[in-house]
Amino acid sequence: MVNYPNKKKGQYTTRTIEGKHDTARRGMHLEEDINLSNEYYLSHDIAVIHKKPTPIQIVKVQYPARTAAKIVEAYFKTPSTTDYNGLYKGKYIDFEAKETKTMSFPFVNISTHQINHLDAIIRHQGIAFVIIAFTRVNEVYLIDASYIIEAYRYGKRQSMKYEAIKEKGHLIKQGYLPRLDYLDIVDRIYLGGKQ
């Protein structure tokens, strides 16, 4: 088990239907879809974008056998910044990926240090955005980080409504390879590609 800096314990759940694993992955496994998309981009020499590793402090290890060690307790050393970063067409990209089961993006899902980090990326002329999966409607949006930062810091709500994200963001095309073609949006919005 890995414990988060706010002392909450991580939980992993799997959904089953009639004793079988649910194969409907769209929107339910955003990180997996992004990782597979990034593998596609890398293998086709399109971009180099990776999930950032988070340093952990191992506290307790069990040794059931000499060759098998099992970490049973660990803590994150420091809060993470964002989920992904890398290079695309000579530009630095940094983004956070979040799923929500509601029809809004609750700001409890993103922390102040992540907002500050995204703001710093923008100030230094990098490309910063948030990918949000709305699992209820099976839609995934890319929204420029500046909209999230402004709503987080100055908005009167504790969330950003689906309608606002749909209006200000861009629906990411879901497919097979890549699963989430978010770089198509990066081309059009940030790099002046075709609309």
DSSP E strands, number: 13
Element pattern in H and E: EEEHEEEEEEHEEHEHEH
Shape: globular
| Uncertain segments | 1-28
- Mind telling me the C-alpha Rg? 18 Å
Largest sheet: 6 strands, mixed
Helix content: 25-40%
Output the strand order for the largest sheet. Answer: 4-7-8-10-11-13
SS-based class: alpha+beta
Strand content: 25-35%
Number of helices, counting only DSSP H or I runs of 4 residues or more = 5
- Distance N to C terminus: 45 Å
Average pLDDT rating: 84
The oligomeric status of these chains comes to single chain
Any overview of this molecule?
This protein has 195 residues and is of the alpha+beta class. It is built from five helices and 13 strands. A six-stranded mixed sheet has the order 4-7-8-10-11-13, sandwiched between helices. Strands 1-6-5 form a three-stranded mixed sheet, with no helix packed on it. Helix 2 packs across helix 3.
Overview in brief:
The chain is of the alpha+beta class. The chain has helices spanning about 30-45, 110-125, 145-155, 160-170, 180-190, and strands at about 1-5, 15, 20, 50, 55-65, 70-75, 85-90, 90-100, 105, 125-135, 140-145, 160, 170. The strands form four sheets. The protein has a six-stranded mixed beta sheet with strand order 4-7-8-10-11-13, sandwiched between helices. The chain has a three-stranded mixed beta sheet with strand order 1-6-5, with no helix packed on it. A two-stranded antiparallel ribbon has the order 2-3.
